[in-house]
Amino acid sequence: MNAESxxxxxxxxxxxxxxxxxxxxxxxxxxxxxxxxxxxxxxRALRAGMPEVVFGQRKTxxxxxxxxxxxxxxxxxxxxxxxxxxxxxxxxxxxxxxxYREMARAIVLQRDSTKxxxxxIAVVSAGTSDIAVAEEAVVTAELMGNQVxxxxxxxxxxxxxxxxxxxxLTGARVVIVCAGMEGALPSVVGGLIGVPxxxxxxxxxxxxxxxxxxxxxxxxxxxxSNVSVVNIDNGFGAGYVASLINRx
Amino acid sequence: MNAESxxxxxxxxxxxxxxxxxxxxxxxxxxxxxxxxxxxxxxRALRAGMPEVVFGQRKTxxxxxxxxxxxxxxxxxxxxxxxxxxxxxxxxxxxxxxxYREMARAIVLQRDSTKxxxxxIAVVSAGTSDIAVAEEAVVTAELMGNQVxxxxxxxxxxxxxxxxxxxxLTGARVVIVCAGMEGALPSVVGGLIGVPxxxxxxxxxxxxxxxxxxxxxxxxxxxxSNVSVVNIDNGFGAGYVASLINRx
Amino acid sequence: MNAESxxxxxxxxxxxxxxxxxxxxxxxxxxxxxxxxxxxxxxRALRAGMPEVVFGQRKTxxxxxxxxxxxxxxxxxxxxxxxxxxxxxxxxxxxxxxxYREMARAIVLQRDSTKxxxxxIAVVSAGTSDIAVAEEAVVTAELMGNQVxxxxxxxxxxxxxxxxxxxxLTGARVVIVCAGMEGALPSVVGGLIGVPxxxxxxxxxxxxxxxxxxxxxxxxxxxxSNVSVVNIDNGFGAGYVASLINRx
Amino acid sequence: MNAESxxxxxxxxxxxxxxxxxxxxxxxxxxxxxxxxxxxxxxRALRAGMPEVVFGQRKTxxxxxxxxxxxxxxxxxxxxxxxxxxxxxxxxxxxxxxxYREMARAIVLQRDSTKxxxxxIAVVSAGTSDIAVAEEAVVTAELMGNQVxxxxxxxxxxxxxxxxxxxxLTGARVVIVCAGMEGALPSVVGGLIGVPxxxxxxxxxxxxxxxxxxxxxxxxxxxxSNVSVVNIDNGFGAGYVASLINRx
Amino acid sequence: MNAESxxxxxxxxxxxxxxxxxxxxxxxxxxxxxxxxxxxxxxRALRAGMPEVVFGQRKTxxxxxxxxxxxxxxxxxxxxxxxxxxxxxxxxxxxxxxxYREMARAIVLQRDSTKxxxxxIAVVSAGTSDIAVAEEAVVTAELMGNQVxxxxxxxxxxxxxxxxxxxxLTGARVVIVCAGMEGALPSVVGGLIGVPxxxxxxxxxxxxxxxxxxxxxxxxxxxxSNVSVVNIDNGFGAGYVASLINRx
Amino acid sequence: MNAESxxxxxxxxxxxxxxxxxxxxxxxxxxxxxxxxxxxxxxRALRAGMPEVVFGQRKTxxxxxxxxxxxxxxxxxxxxxxxxxxxxxxxxxxxxxxxYREMARAIVLQRDSTKxxxxxIAVVSAGTSDIAVAEEAVVTAELMGNQVxxxxxxxxxxxxxxxxxxxxLTGARVVIVCAGMEGALPSVVGGLIGVPxxxxxxxxxxxxxxxxxxxxxxxxxxxxSNVSVVNIDNGFGAGYVASLINRx
Amino acid sequence: MNAESxxxxxxxxxxxxxxxxxxxxxxxxxxxxxxxxxxxxxxRALRAGMPEVVFGQRKTxxxxxxxxxxxxxxxxxxxxxxxxxxxxxxxxxxxxxxxYREMARAIVLQRDSTKxxxxxIAVVSAGTSDIAVAEEAVVTAELMGNQVxxxxxxxxxxxxxxxxxxxxLTGARVVIVCAGMEGALPSVVGGLIGVPxxxxxxxxxxxxxxxxxxxxxxxxxxxxSNVSVVNIDNGFGAGYVASLINRx
Amino acid sequence: MNAESxxxxxxxxxxxxxxxxxxxxxxxxxxxxxxxxxxxxxxRALRAGMPEVVFGQRKTxxxxxxxxxxxxxxxxxxxxxxxxxxxxxxxxxxxxxxxYREMARAIVLQRDSTKxxxxxIAVVSAGTSDIAVAEEAVVTAELMGNQVxxxxxxxxxxxxxxxxxxxxLTGARVVIVCAGMEGALPSVVGGLIGVPxxxxxxxxxxxxxxxxxxxxxxxxxxxxSNVSVVNIDNGFGAGYVASLINRx
Lengths: 248, 248, 248, 248, 248, 248, 248, 248
Known about the structure:
The structure is a homooctamer of 248-residue chains. Chain A has 248 residues and is α/β, with parallel strands linked by helices. Chain A has eleven helices and eleven strands. Chain A has helices at 3-14, 20-29, 42-46, 61-71, 85-94, 131-143, 159-164, 166-170, 185-192, 213-220, 235-247, and strands at 32-34, 39-41, 52-55, 78-81, 99-101, 106-109, 120-125, 147-151, 174-179, 197-201, 227-229. In chain A, the strands form three sheets. In chain A, strands 8-7-9-10-11 form a five-stranded parallel β-sheet, sandwiched between helices. The first copy, chain A, has a four-stranded mixed β-sheet with strand order 3-4-6-5, sandwiched between helices. In chain A, helix 9 links the parallel strand 9 and strand 10 (197-201). The interface between C and E is medium-sized, with 11 and 17 residues.
């Protein structure tokens, strides 16, 4: 809970600036702010270095710009995922410093660049088509205050490329692995290192890849014990979980 | 077609030993022999070095012994797959030289040990639990006249074990890879070598392995282009396809 | 890699006790010990406090006892998962100090009780039927040197029970949540805390639970961003991942 | 059956206004009116306060307008679901008082505002994306004569928001819960109250949400015993069932 | 939120009895334990006529007998579902008045026979094989204080049998319909009546019935709007939901 | 609708014998009992040569014997499908002339051997393992008064065996084709002939055969236009449909 | 086998006109080309009243027009299914008498209106959305020379509408039933009549209808024994099978 | 393992040039970079006649043109699969000799026309809709230096067309079979010949074809032992595997 805001409330009550009844009423209205179609939870934003996150998909540029702009009134970083260039254009008009991370399809406003993560997070992708998902993980981890290193296009059918770069892996405190098709990379990476691996199945692949299901099943059944899995194409979730681990 | 048998028929007709009508009648009864519950195709057995194959499952020991025994009347090797020790006991009584390959659950009678295959077939397994399927492939390939080398317990979570033994892989003319769980091994193996890889998903695994479906999907989506796939647990099919390739 | 063993090899070579050729040969045989049916990777065991792990299922009591006994020759803890009372009886004869954790179906030999984990791991279960899986996670985390606290039978249909115990949750550095049926608990737990949640779908449930698939899908789609998932009923994997995180 | 209409028929026969043969003929043509492509069942409309319902999807604006207009000739409310703004424009030209409920994508003509329902129906949604489905349930329940209260954006990952508003829940006689992703909300709501919960899985979600299947399975496996489920995105069905219950 | 408790807190702060910091701390620990939640569970137990329910499956006879016996210490009815004759024998020794409802596989102790339900609940089954599930619904509804009428073996392939008995249907306040195979019966029943229908797919059927999945899908897609669905074979859930509705 | 009955009603009303209210009431109770429905079931039993059918599975020997015996009181043939030898023993004691068709797992009492079918029905099976299902179709068709010819073990991998026997196919008025594994045989048979083909997927096969699903999908997608499909292993259904067609 | 051809061969060998080796060689080349197969296709075209059928989908208007036009060079009817208005426009230019059946999306040229079918085929649809599929069945059956009667919008949720029209059903020699959603109609229809029912699942429905899969499963599991099933939306196949049956 | 490198290490230790600690350290960094792996990729490029392959899908024309152009700097053939006419236009501007194989949707630059394959590869397709996939296999095999023969439109419902052309099949060293719908053709082809068959399921079909899944399952369950399978629509993979086999 947002101790500071609540403490202020009590101080105002003690100093007589606020009646208890009014205070109860404010407390009731504190937690959720009303933007009309979505209640945003401020508590979340108060956690040190945690960015405000908006899911861009299915929102009009105007809607997204309004939400994004509103969020800037508090401090901290802001991240809009699954955002289109059109949405960015609308945001940009209201929030001059906002930037578009094209490959990740993310709009970011970075105002806090403290390093909250204790070590480095490696983000690994199997093929070039998995990079969009990997980049979403990268942006998320960066906005949450982590040093991130990329290791892309190191799929299992060319295992030497992965092995030649295992220095990056062994230097990481957490590793995110994005892979489509058979989803085999997390198992191989997991076997090479001793730190947690967050696996992200991607919807890359054809025919019996079934939009990421084959990769998801592959990862669920990983023979490496240090692998856990997030949803298909969920780069944000992987970046988020990895960031939490890296803060520990 | 069994040219020799038919040629004899014509010779008998020419020599007058057989009337044309009788010959037509015999021809009609030639192709399929009647064992009561299964018509066995003799044509198949006439291909040089091809073993007679019986599928043991759901047959009583007596039924299997009768079929197996009958097959010995012609030359060549005989293979009964999915065979139990009880079935073997029944076969052994009728066919003294029959042997039981316990891990493969196969009964074999090897009378022809010609090497029909031109090179070596490597049979690789990911884990110890995949060995039963791998052994069925081994037995099949051996009975079809191939030199076989095993490379077991080299799953992708300990990639160095596979790499330490890649000499076996590079010496092979065809490679069979058996793997359950995520079914990732064929991709890795396929990336290391330039010869055809026959992948066999096994029903090994738990939870979301779904009796081999996860491995099957993984293999169908292999990012290595030299991989083709046979049915779940179908060690026989893999050994058969690999043997055909090795004869070319 | 097992630096000490290799260093000894080099020392023996320098002192002339071993010829280089012999040393190469020994090195080749160092990594994998041969137990006949499974190559055990010693490297793994050398990581501080990491237990040796054997998967009990589909092994005869004699086989498991032999492997377990062999593993005792090195130091450290030993864990056999999916082990039956019969298997334990066989192990017990060879390894007097081995203990059976009945609910977890695990055989353990704990010789190292150093606390390698920096904080506490909370293991949460939705219903009483999920406890077997939860206990496997507990045993695994304990053998890997973690303080563990249980929070059982706090499913989402009685949300107040969970809330009344959220002190345990907020005191944890990592949380494992085991749930079958709709698999909703990880989302609720994830929303209450700010640390990583490892979700384990269990095969508990009837009808459209489909042996854990409903729970797995529920967890993959968790609306809480700090949740990642391991395979159905994979208490060991959850305990292992949580332990790695807790060591960071 | 429509007793009144039939009674009139008999009266006309008794009074000699109608011959028995003519009456039989009329009776035959009574039940179904012919609009060319759809037979509408008048019996249904005669139930007190039950609206006429048209499914808008895959109908041209002209077709929908014709049906809607025809239905106005009888009394009572009219509801067209899955209706587009274009369809509304066409309806509006023929039926001046028709209104468009944009979020619910419904065209309504409300002429009867009797409260047939005995209590209040609460309509709950997990996220902002579930609101379209929730609103369809709201419109349906309102047109069927119920008092409805909304409780939106109270998903399980922020359980305090739900708890802070449980007054609405405990005041309801029936509760409708719309949720996508893991579909966990009905279980939590069901555990908080003692009245029937109608769960509506929505197709909201990504990756392994499978267009609402994950939510559907989650709801089918609800650990709360007072939950029953309607089809994915079927807000109309939920509103209809809840209304029937509220009339009891 | 519990405004009164919080108001007291503010009053204590204003009066100086509590420092703001202490107040923040108390607030943090207040929310659930003291805000009425602990009472919620109590409230549940106090609901008039609600039976105690035990799920018998996977419990030993001794375990079930112990639980059942302990539950008798409070008043009210007791229901053990999925219970075997062996479990009943064990229960019977401890609880003399317990009875076994063989077809429903349920152990019951009925001490309260008040009629809490306002009308009659009809329980309909499509085939004779669905009766076990139907009987579980019957027992549940009876123990919860309802008048129940059975209408069995009225599947859609002999529609006249259903129609000949529609008096039972029209006399019901809620209807439960159990059907396997294609699960079509709820649609037909739903079309004949104007009250809520609770559909229960059963795992009866062969081949492509897929253990109740075909029936489940059929019911989810019912073209009758008054149908909602519970889990496969979940007779208890249907009886429970129907009872709640019948109390309204 | 039954115009005559209704006309009588109107006449009675006109003549004053019946009041309109009473007439409405009678009409309400008229529709089905008196409108020919009761006769429908009778009509069914009267259909010449239709056997009484009992589904044996999940019935005790005593139950089956009792039902079977009771059915003998009417004339005509009796067929019990999915019947075990134990069930037959019990039936045999009560019905001396009953016979057991072992391969079909059917108990039959044939008292009417009239040939109701106009032509011959060919029953084809792909492999020896499909014969049980094929035999059920044979028994059903024979008891319904058809001449049946078998064509077994003519799977598509040995297409010449099928072609060598196509005389049987071209002589048939309807063809039943039973096949497991890939379920390809109906397409091939369908392409060879111009009469209806009833395809029966069987649960024969391994791995990705999924208990008949692969065969079912294969048959649903048959590229031959004269193929329709019944449920997996449903030899009875195929025999029944084929018999109806053969009577036309 | 073609005994006569083979007999000639033997006669030639006996008479010395042919050497055995040459005979063997000829036999090898004999089987199919000379054994009646070439004639089989011809035979097909000669079957009285069978239309030429073209599948329109994925063909350009020009391609379809060219094929359609070429087919007119032989006599008989022509049917193009899945054809768009654009394709019809192109066909119309080349084939003046071609007609477009809009609801069925079919282009037809009917030059032979002989009634080849012996009775009437009833085509039944559950809802208005199933009519497109039903009309494809109607067109197919008509072009194949059958009298067809339609019975539309008689779904199971309003069973009285079906019953009121059962005269049409009982007058049919074969019945085609098209239904989406739960696919229950074929079971009900099947129970009312004694002739073969061809069931066509349609892709009509929402959510868990899964593009016709729910209806398909429902029909496969029909509790009426006279039902067989064709592929989803396959109105053509149903019309074709029904026509073959009606010619018998 | 690379014995020579390691042997040198030991020699250096024995000669005192290297301390044991330094040696351990070097060994740790040795394994992959220096043990021949870097050369592996080079080795790949050097394999005689292997084309460079680019996957065209999801690349802009400019991107594809740039990659294609760069690849021309090395010798050998170049193949871009899944390429659109727009992409070809862009490539053509940079690489004058590039050609577009329209049916295969492939851009090729053939500079090496050596025949590396020892025999002929037959590419078979079931229907005209499978030709796109078949042509991709043809182009791939041709660019890899094989003689290819096509055998199109020989589906199993017209088996005589396949049989009439079996000369092509029996002349092949490897056979590729592309089929959608029920995927039955590989089984029939496999039964006619004794060489390996590579089966390619295509996404051709409607309704329950499920975008190639029905064909995939059919092929996995092929009753012909010489069949292995690649992914749905993966003509490239089939051509690649067949080419590798044909080089052996």
